[in-house]
Design goal:
The chain is an alpha+beta fold and 753 residues long. Helix content is 29%, strand content 26%.
């Protein structure tokens, strides 16, 4: 059974009748968008809707991951897991025939409607294992972009990933390529605090997926072991940055990133993230140590002949007129060249302008100490490109960074002075490269070469304006560069604060000129991105206040309170400034004291219990404090205590049940409560002579122990005989006999007269 959408055919022969995965109602929204709007309107809709799924499925940047592949119009491509068609359009423009396979009919409809004018695309809806037997065996490219990690779900069994590849190899033409784009489980972003892309949890891949599930990403070594198990021979690895989803740059083992290049790391469009360290600085160290292939956020593995391309950078975060791709290629003799291709029809004029800019700049800098990289115009399949020589050397920005790292301020300023001298040559000539930033100048000994000049204008621009912009962009790229003495630079350039403000405004206008109405990915992240949490800042704030917000417990064992008999309970803060803990103590403890903080504060007592029973906080004979207890609207249930002191404390005597237990004593309950309230003493009776009611007015003899609430000590045992209406209790206090008389005790009512 088939269905036709425009010029695209949907093959439904293997469709099970329902979609087994779905992003919910947003897929209906995306389907409605692709039915109503053209692709040129997607950027506007993404900005308006502020939705991660809409960005993810409709952004043109998704195509970058396959755009650089050398697919020819005579070749066939199989796309497994085509989804909503994020890369299908790019494949259709490059290849002669594209076959898509996806389990979801809803997503396949989205793919079909957004590419309805492509007459070379067929979409099979169904599980890959069901569709695969009917596929031919002559595909030049088989693409698995964000799919290989689901191999266990597709294939099952004990070796799903190896079996997946073996099946794919059967459908590959001689000299064909399998292209796999996948996250690196040990990507630096995961160590830095990004959540695992599929599970949405922190450190899942790093911890080897303790939650289980069917999704798995791999290190490069693990991928190579899988390839070896399948008998894969020739393969090469490429490193999409920041990752394969919204790739702006792709590196290879033949062209790895240099210091300072990996600065675009805040890409959490869909989830909150932590920021445990500065990824750019970490990447700089990783690059210097030769470990980039281990910590790259994503991989593109190409099974088959390696690509001639060694590097590509996409500048499609721009207006239609300026979207280009920059490539570094190496021919069979090992010679490298640089090419810039237009990504849109509108950008062709921008590319054709580059050789013209070269001729003008060459004339301006003739006889100077600044070389201009040679540029020629070429054409490939009717599309123009600008070809540049590959110039050896190191970026001037990198040399300046090294000066700052070793605190060689004078070395930095010497380089800056040399920059001014070289780029300022011919200042009055009516042609200037506005983008003379430090990264666009390569230094090889005494040879300084301007390698990128796509923003060349037919008018003179003051050297100090160009230099200010170079410094401004340099500092914005890395916070560590804020150590520069900007006042010294401004003085050298003769730029006032007002002029600096005007130059900054000019830069904002230029950026708007470049991007047009399109939002940059940085702006989009600000619109819909998750929160960024910095635990290091939390630690800093905690350290500032930990002395103030620490709770301390004191135990009085008959000698009063002391620091020796105190401790700080750990892990008591369930939430910020809200503590909850349990205190365990033995029978030697007479009093407990809680210091809720180490500063003047207001403390709200949510709950205070003793052996599961609530403690009456506002009972002055039970709880004392050096603060002021405020009566709450509902009485004493949740009072607040104002502590105008740097040493706030609460002291409770409600520990006596435990103390009496060690003496074989039993609290007399309500009667003891009355005695404590009326006379400041608490009564206990020995358990073995506990009062037993024999009639209305006859009671057995009681042995009573008395605890004095003021002096925290037991006194002599007293005797009471007869009726409770006539109790006389005598005990010693400070060498004197104290008598307590009770006229009447009503057992039922529980009060004393």
């Amino acid at each position: 059974m088939t269905e036709t959408i425009g010029k695209i055919t949907l093959n439904l022969d293997k469709y099970p009748g329902e979609d087994y995965y779905c992003d919910g109602s947003v897929e209906d929204e995306i389907l409605d968008i692709v039915k109503k709007y053209s692709t040129v309107e997607y950027d506007r809709i993404i900005a308006e809707r502020k939705s991660w799924p809409i960005l993810y499925h409709l952004s043109a940047l998704r195509e970058n991951i396959v755009d650089f592949l050398p697919i020819q119009k005579t070749e066939k491509v199989l796309e497994v897991g085509s989804g909503c068609g994020a890369i299908t359009g790019a494949l259709a423009r490059k290849a002669g025939e594209v076959t898509c396979v996806d389990l979801s009919k809803k997503r396949s409809l989205i793919n079909a409607y957004r590419h309805s004018e492509c007459e070379n695309v067929t979409i099979h809806v169904g599980n890959f294992t069901d569709v695969e037997p009917e596929l031919p065996a002559d595909y030049d490219y088989i693409c698995l972009i964000g799919v290989f990690e689901y191999g266990q779900a597709y294939i099952g069994g004990k070796t799903p990933y190896e079996d997946f590849l073996k099946i794919l190899q059967k459908h590959l033409a001689p000299d064909g390529r399998i292209v796999i784009a996948i996250e690196n489980k040990y990507g630096l972003k995961y160590f830095a605090g990004c959540k695992e892309d599929h599970l949405g949890s922190w450190f899942s891949g790093i911890e080897n997926y303790p939650e289980g599930g069917v999704v798995r990403t791999f290190s490069r070594k693990k991928l190579e072991r899988i390839f070896d198990a399948c008998g894969v021979g020739e393969r090469s690895f490429y490193y999409p940055y920041p990752d394969y989803k919204f790739m702006t740059t792709v590196y290879s083992d033949a062209y790895l990133p240099g210091r300072g290049e990996l600065s675009n790391n805040l890409r959490n469009f869909d989830r909150d993230r932590m920021l445990l360290f500065d990824e750019k600085s970490a990447f700089d160290g990783i690059v210097e140590e030769g470990l980039f292939s281990v910590f790259s956020n994503s991989y593109m593995a190409v099974i088959g002949a390696p690509l001639d391309l060694k590097y590509a950078r996409y500048s499609n975060d721009r207006a239609e007129s300026f979207r280009i791709r920059t490539e570094i290629l190496r021919d069979k003799e090992g010679c490298k060249t640089v090419r810039k291709y237009p990504l849109t029809k509108e950008a062709e004029a921008h590319v054709r302008h580059m050789p013209e800019a070269y001729e003008k700049l060459k004339e301006r800098y003739a006889g100077s100490s600044l070389d201009v990289n040679v540029c020629h115009l070429g054409e490939e399949n009717g599309i123009p490109y600008a070809e540049f020589e590959f110039v050896p050397g190191r970026p001037l920005s990198e040399l300046m960074d090294e000066c700052l790292d070793r605190q060689d301020v004078e070395g930095f300023h010497n380089l800056f002075a040399e920059y001014l001298e070289r780029v300022g040559y011919g200042e009055d000539v009516p042609v200037a490269d506005f983008d003379l930033i430090f990264a666009n100048i390569l230094v090889d000994g005494d040879h300084w070469t301007l390698i990128d000049y796509e923003w060349t204008f037919d008018r003179p621009i003051e050297t100090r304006a160009l230099a200010f912009r170079a410094v401004y962009c340099y500092v914005l790229e890395d916070e560590r560069r804020n150590a520069l003495e900007l006042d010294r630079i401004l003085d050298r350039l003769g730029i006032t604060e007002n002029e600096a403000r005007q130059y900054r405004e000019q830069e904002m206008e230029f950026q708007k000129y470049v991007t047009g109405q399109k939002l940059s990915m940085g702006e989009i992240r600000n619109l819909l991105g998750g929160e960024i949490y910095k635990p290091t800042e939390w630690i800093g704030r905690f350290r500032q206040t930990e002395g103030e917000l620490r709770a301390q417990i004191y135990e009085d064992k008959g000698q009063g309170f002391s620091e020796e008999n105190s401790y700080f309970p750990e892990n008591v803060y369930a939430e910020e400034k809200q503590a909850e803990f349990t205190v365990n103590f033995d029978g030697n403890v007479h009093y407990l004291r809680l210091d809720p903080a180490m500063c003047a504060c207001v403390c709200k007592i949510r709950e205070l219990t003793m052996n599961g029973q609530p403690v009456p906080v506002q009972h002055k004979k039970i709880v004392t404090t050096n603060g002021k207890i405020l009566k709450s609207a509902d009485g004493a249930e949740h009072p607040s205590v104002v502590f105008p002191t740097e040493d706030p404390n609460l002291t409770t005597i409600y520990v006596y049940d435990e103390a009496a237990e060690s003496f074989g004593l039993q609290d007399m309950g309500w009667f003891a409560d009355i005695m404590a309230k009326r006379f400041g003493v608490r009564l206990y009776m020995f358990k073995h002579v506990a009062a037993t009611r024999l009639g209305d007015d006859v009671y057995r003899k009681m042995d009573i122990a008395i605890w004095d609430t003021e002096s925290s000590s037991y006194y002599v045992q007293a005797k009471a005989e007869g009726r409770l209406e006539d109790i006389q209790v005598s005990h010693m206090k400070n060498g004197k006999v104290i008598s307590i008389g009770v006229r009447s005790v009503n057992m039922a009512a529980g009060f004393c007269e």
